[in-house]
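User: Working on a comparison across species. This one is Methyltransferase small from Actinomadura verrucosospora. Can you predict its structure so I can line it up against the others?
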Amino acid sequence: MRDLREALRRVRAAFEAAGYTVDGVRGLLGPVAGGALARDEIAPALRATRGGSPLEALTRLFWLQVPVDAAALDARDLVAAGLVEPSGGEVRPLLHVEPLESVSGAGHAGYVVSDLKVRPGSGTVPADDHVVGTGGASGNLARLVVHKPVDNVLDLGTGCGVQAVHLHDRLRRARITATDVNPRALELAAMSFELSGMDGVELLEGSLLEPVRGRRFDLIVSNPPFVVAPSGDRRFTYRESGMPGDDFCRRLVGAAPEMLEDGGYCQLLANWLHIDGVPWEERLGGWVEGCDAWIVQRDVQDPAEYAELWLRDSCEAGTPEYRARYDAWLEHFERQGVTGIGFGWITLRRAERPAVRIEELRQAVDQPVGAYVEGVMDGFRNAEKFSTGCGSPLRVADGLVQEQVGPPGAEDPERIVLRQTAGLRRAAGVGTVEAALAGVCDGSLPLDPLLGAIAQLTGMDAGQVRAHADTVLPELIADGFFEVP
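Assistant: Here's the predicted structure for Methyltransferase small from Actinomadura verrucosospora:
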């Protein structure tokens, strides 16, 4: 083990000397080859990496997964670390090693080691214990995680260690525990941590929260096996739990309060079922207790789309088993009355009097969400206790613009819209009272005299203005248009 760790440390130094980072590879490939690679087309990238430099050799080996001439680099440490093996006059990759970019998009976070990618058309499917590398889902979760200093972190279902590497990049002194049900995942995660210069990460084997039962954390993050597969199906441990339906995510949400410190966060990606005759918001609302919750649906697929997505993911399209597996998925969904499957994220914060918000957001939002997620959660809580009679001032949120719609030259607009130019980029149609408040609320004056002045200027009854404000302002506070200082 000591020899392996020393070899990985020397490999890390070689990677850094060669410029094997996301910025380095991006600059090497350029936009055309880089765009093709994002679509799993490697031919342009192979053309862009023919020069024989150390960076080109490492990119071909560990990103494109093709053998390179043994003379192109000193492979002794790569062999000793178990990353490559000699093959004639070449070395060929045994594992996929990918650099990670910091969540902020500026700087190098570390490296993750995973199994070789199985690409469409290769004629093979992943092994049962296949360990995937970084991807769209893991990137989305990393950008969601709250930017709050914490001391004690759990990465549940760490896989190759993507979230733990991102957390270490941002929280250098935090104690990190990483768990997984797959022993192979823990082995590769340990290699990822060594290559990323991380010491002291606790690695534990086990399902759900069993390995850490009785402990509490400031932050729990999880990119769990959320795929809703036919009952009992656990062909691929990286994506399927073997539990029925969306039970894995439901159980994780339900168990979170007892595992969090006061004010602690649990953040995860999830899939959930849309059942015929049952509002999906109602189903998910029943999962939550003991925590503030923000549950966001970013997409919905019908059962056929969903089955196709995950059959493509496992490279089973075009295989003899494709139709039978496709039919098994559809049969399963029909029996359960499933009309669709939602994709999204869940953020929980332990609280005594939980505020819960379940919604659908399809628009593009500013990244990283983690930079402002705490403010979003505070908005829900402030909205629940707000009333115009409480005496608290209001402040209009930064970056808010007002749009007025109506015929040219008309005295009064037909419609007034408040629009956020940052963050969640929401838009809300508002009336005269809300629009007037948006123009004067800077957090320095109590709300009551402002409402009185608006009543005088508009000729409206002061009581009606206050009653209207009590009705509409909580939703605008929850949506982030106004803030309670």
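For your comparison, note: The chain is about 35% helix and 25% strand.

User: Helpful, thanks.
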